Amino acid sequence: MFIAPPEPKTSRKIAEMYENARDTHGYLPNMYQAFGHRPEVMESWSALLVSLRGNIEPRRYELVTLAAARELRSSYCMLAHGAVLAREGVSGSELEAIIDGGDDAPLDEQERAIMVFATKVVRDATSITQDDIDMLKTHALTDAEIFDIVAAAAARCFFSKTLDALGTSPDQAYVDRLGPQLSEKLAMGRPIEQDA
User: Where would I find the Carboxymuconolactone decarboxylase-like domain in this sequence (predicted)?
Assistant: First the structure.
């Protein structure tokens, strides 16, 4: 990481954030250390995620996030959300097919359209036209659902870019969860942290 994370003793909020992260993950993930100087921002980010996830199907949220992270070349977010899909039963080969956008990816036509659209939101939101929205509506998506897709993709830009701009390496724990080959495939940007 390009900046030094603060020590837990710096403030009660930092100590609590680190402790909660350790309780949840079994270790202190690098992303929490990156946000260590501003735990209130991580708190707000967590609240935003709860709000976003409350209005979108879990699988759809993960696919939108994966599409956004892929376009951002965010290793951390690719690994984190790839791990969620793997935990939900998506096999390693299926996950690779989703990442590659191949015809053999286990996606229906609506999911394919959503991922293409989420990629476009990240790449250049000003290029989106009414035709793009109308195309999503042909896949039985409502205006509110389209908003949710846009919001989830746009929110990922904040988090991924913050981690990458601070030089935050993805945690070695993802290699343990996903295996070295799949982890390497998902690490499209910054390399995975090496064990000391």
Answer: 39-115
Alpha-carbon torsion, ordered 8, 34, 117, 110, to 10 deg: -40
pLDDT for the residue numbered 103: 85
pLDDT at residue 196 above 60? no
CATH number for the domain running over 8-52? 1.20.5
Nearest-angstrom CA–CA distance, 67 and 112: 10
Q: How far is CA 70 from CA 7, 10, 40, 54, 66, in A?
A: 32, 35, 27, 23, 6
The whole-model pTM stands at 0.94
CA distance 87 to 57: 16
* Domain 57-186, CATH: 1.20.1290.10
Contacts of 168 (CB under 8 A, 6+ apart): 1, 30, 31, 33, 34, 76, 190
Compute the distance between CA of residue 163 and CA of residue 31 in angstroms, rounded to an integer: 7
- What residue segments make up the domains of the chain, in order of their start? 8-52, 57-186
Handedness of CA 158, 160, 163, 167 (dihedral sign): negative
